[in-house]
Design goal:
- The protein is mainly alpha-helical.
- It contains eight helices and two strands, in the order H-H-H-H-H-H-H-H-E-E.
- It has helices spanning 2-6, 9-19, 21-24, 31-39, 48-62, 73-87, 105-119, 125-129, and strands at residues 143-144, 150-151.
- Strand 1 and strand 2 form a beta hairpin.
- Helix 5 (48-62) packs parallel to helix 7.
Length: 154
Protein backbone atom coordinates (compact mmCIF):
# COMPACT_ATOMS: atom_id res chain seq x y z
CA UNK A 1 0.00 0.00 0.00
CA UNK A 2 2.91 2.37 0.70
CA UNK A 3 4.09 2.12 -2.90
CA UNK A 4 0.67 3.02 -4.29
CA UNK A 5 0.38 5.99 -1.97
CA UNK A 6 3.79 7.30 -2.99
CA UNK A 7 3.03 7.43 -6.72
CA UNK A 8 1.77 10.79 -7.97
CA UNK A 9 -0.25 9.15 -10.73
CA UNK A 10 -2.77 7.64 -8.30
CA UNK A 11 -4.16 10.95 -6.98
CA UNK A 12 -3.99 12.29 -10.53
CA UNK A 13 -6.20 9.42 -11.77
CA UNK A 14 -8.62 9.94 -8.88
CA UNK A 15 -8.75 13.68 -9.55
CA UNK A 16 -9.37 13.12 -13.27
CA UNK A 17 -12.25 10.79 -12.44
CA UNK A 18 -13.70 13.25 -9.95
CA UNK A 19 -13.54 16.16 -12.41
CA UNK A 20 -14.96 14.28 -15.38
CA UNK A 21 -17.21 11.74 -13.64
CA UNK A 22 -20.48 12.98 -15.13
CA UNK A 23 -19.06 13.91 -18.53
CA UNK A 24 -17.34 10.55 -19.10
CA UNK A 25 -19.76 8.27 -17.23
CA UNK A 26 -17.27 7.32 -14.51
CA UNK A 27 -18.11 5.87 -11.11
CA UNK A 28 -17.99 8.04 -8.01
CA UNK A 29 -15.28 6.70 -5.69
CA UNK A 30 -12.75 7.66 -3.05
CA UNK A 31 -9.03 7.43 -3.66
CA UNK A 32 -8.89 4.62 -1.08
CA UNK A 33 -11.26 2.58 -3.26
CA UNK A 34 -8.94 3.07 -6.21
CA UNK A 35 -5.92 2.01 -4.16
CA UNK A 36 -7.71 -1.13 -2.98
CA UNK A 37 -8.82 -1.89 -6.52
CA UNK A 38 -5.30 -1.63 -7.82
CA UNK A 39 -4.08 -3.94 -5.07
CA UNK A 40 -6.55 -6.71 -5.98
CA UNK A 41 -3.77 -8.26 -8.02
CA UNK A 42 -4.50 -11.32 -10.13
CA UNK A 43 -7.94 -12.11 -8.79
CA UNK A 44 -10.10 -13.86 -11.35
CA UNK A 45 -12.87 -11.32 -11.07
CA UNK A 46 -10.49 -8.38 -10.50
CA UNK A 47 -11.86 -5.21 -8.97
CA UNK A 48 -15.19 -3.89 -10.26
CA UNK A 49 -14.13 -0.24 -9.91
CA UNK A 50 -10.95 -0.70 -11.93
CA UNK A 51 -12.78 -2.77 -14.57
CA UNK A 52 -15.50 -0.13 -14.91
CA UNK A 53 -12.93 2.65 -15.11
CA UNK A 54 -11.00 0.91 -17.88
CA UNK A 55 -14.20 0.07 -19.74
CA UNK A 56 -15.55 3.64 -19.60
CA UNK A 57 -12.26 5.15 -20.71
CA UNK A 58 -11.89 2.69 -23.59
CA UNK A 59 -15.47 3.21 -24.75
CA UNK A 60 -14.90 6.95 -24.80
CA UNK A 61 -11.53 6.78 -26.49
CA UNK A 62 -12.65 4.48 -29.28
CA UNK A 63 -16.11 6.10 -29.45
CA UNK A 64 -17.65 2.63 -29.34
CA UNK A 65 -19.78 2.28 -26.18
CA UNK A 66 -22.07 -0.16 -27.94
CA UNK A 67 -19.24 -2.46 -29.03
CA UNK A 68 -16.66 -2.42 -26.21
CA UNK A 69 -17.85 -4.44 -23.23
CA UNK A 70 -16.50 -6.41 -20.30
CA UNK A 71 -15.87 -9.47 -22.47
CA UNK A 72 -13.65 -7.69 -25.02
CA UNK A 73 -12.16 -4.79 -23.04
CA UNK A 74 -8.83 -6.63 -22.62
CA UNK A 75 -8.47 -6.89 -26.40
CA UNK A 76 -9.18 -3.20 -26.93
CA UNK A 77 -6.90 -2.27 -24.03
CA UNK A 78 -4.04 -4.34 -25.48
CA UNK A 79 -4.59 -2.79 -28.92
CA UNK A 80 -4.53 0.75 -27.53
CA UNK A 81 -1.48 0.19 -25.33
CA UNK A 82 0.41 -1.56 -28.13
CA UNK A 83 -0.24 1.33 -30.50
CA UNK A 84 0.20 4.29 -28.16
CA UNK A 85 3.06 3.01 -26.01
CA UNK A 86 5.07 2.16 -29.13
CA UNK A 87 4.68 5.83 -30.15
CA UNK A 88 5.68 6.96 -26.65
CA UNK A 89 8.77 4.73 -26.49
CA UNK A 90 7.32 2.50 -23.77
CA UNK A 91 7.06 -1.31 -23.88
CA UNK A 92 4.20 -1.84 -26.36
CA UNK A 93 3.90 -5.54 -25.52
CA UNK A 94 3.24 -5.19 -21.81
CA UNK A 95 -0.18 -6.88 -22.17
CA UNK A 96 0.89 -9.57 -24.61
CA UNK A 97 -0.05 -12.96 -23.24
CA UNK A 98 -1.48 -11.68 -19.94
CA UNK A 99 -4.41 -9.72 -18.64
CA UNK A 100 -4.42 -6.40 -16.84
CA UNK A 101 -5.25 -8.13 -13.54
CA UNK A 102 -1.91 -9.95 -13.54
CA UNK A 103 0.34 -7.00 -14.39
CA UNK A 104 2.77 -5.53 -11.87
CA UNK A 105 1.14 -2.84 -9.75
CA UNK A 106 3.29 -0.05 -11.15
CA UNK A 107 2.35 -0.99 -14.72
CA UNK A 108 -1.36 -0.99 -13.84
CA UNK A 109 -1.04 2.55 -12.52
CA UNK A 110 0.87 3.68 -15.61
CA UNK A 111 -1.79 2.20 -17.89
CA UNK A 112 -4.67 3.81 -15.99
CA UNK A 113 -2.90 7.15 -16.01
CA UNK A 114 -2.29 6.83 -19.76
CA UNK A 115 -5.95 5.94 -20.36
CA UNK A 116 -7.00 9.15 -18.62
CA UNK A 117 -4.71 11.15 -20.91
CA UNK A 118 -5.88 9.31 -24.01
CA UNK A 119 -9.55 9.88 -23.13
CA UNK A 120 -8.98 13.62 -23.37
CA UNK A 121 -7.79 13.16 -26.97
CA UNK A 122 -11.02 11.54 -28.16
CA UNK A 123 -12.97 13.40 -30.87
CA UNK A 124 -16.01 13.98 -28.64
CA UNK A 125 -14.17 15.78 -25.83
CA UNK A 126 -14.95 19.32 -26.97
CA UNK A 127 -18.66 18.57 -27.28
CA UNK A 128 -18.83 16.63 -24.02
CA UNK A 129 -16.95 19.22 -22.00
CA UNK A 130 -18.34 22.43 -23.51
CA UNK A 131 -21.30 22.45 -21.11
CA UNK A 132 -19.17 21.70 -18.07
CA UNK A 133 -19.21 24.50 -15.51
CA UNK A 134 -15.78 26.11 -15.33
CA UNK A 135 -16.04 26.37 -11.55
CA UNK A 136 -16.27 22.58 -11.35
CA UNK A 137 -12.78 22.36 -12.90
CA UNK A 138 -11.15 24.55 -10.27
CA UNK A 139 -9.55 22.91 -7.29
CA UNK A 140 -9.30 24.81 -4.05
CA UNK A 141 -6.80 23.87 -1.36
CA UNK A 142 -8.14 22.67 1.98
CA UNK A 143 -5.92 25.13 3.75
CA UNK A 144 -2.41 26.05 4.83
CA UNK A 145 -0.50 25.35 8.00
CA UNK A 146 1.67 27.74 10.03
CA UNK A 147 4.76 26.89 8.00
CA UNK A 148 3.04 27.74 4.70
CA UNK A 149 2.44 24.20 3.43
CA UNK A 150 -0.72 23.95 1.31
CA UNK A 151 -3.03 20.98 1.78
CA UNK A 152 -5.12 19.48 -1.01
CA UNK A 153 -7.78 16.79 -0.98
CA UNK A 154 -8.05 14.36 -3.88
Amino acid sequence: MEDVRSWWEVPSIAHFCSLFRAAFNLLDFDIEDLEEGLLSNGQDNDNLLVRHLILSLLQGYFQRPDVINDENRERYLAELIRKRWAEEQKDPNVLEGRSFAFLPLRTKVEILYSLCDYRLEAPDVLDVLKNLESDSLRVEPLGKDNSGATYWYF
